[in-house]
Design goal:
The protein is built from 1 helix and no strands. It has 62 residues and is an all-alpha fold.
Length: 62
């Protein structure tokens, strides 16, 4: 009976550990996604800024 209790405690520990690993993978995935979103926003801002600079250069030429 003690062996059975011991085994169930061990398997419970393993499932907890797996949950923790799963959560850390998920949060890492979210971080990666947020970084990608952040980068795309940044590159969009850069393109937008370059367009504005381009327009001001063009109007200066005129």
């Amino acid at each position: 009976m003690l062996q059975e209790i011991d085994q169930s405690i061990n398997s419970y520990d393993e499932s907890l550990t797996l949950q923790v690993i799963d959560q850390s993978i998920n949060s890492y995935g979210e971080l990666l996604m947020l970084q990608e979103i952040d980068q795309s926003i940044n590159s969009y801002n850069e393109i937008w800024m370059l367009q504005e600079i381009d327009q001001s250069v063009n109007s200066y030429d005129e």
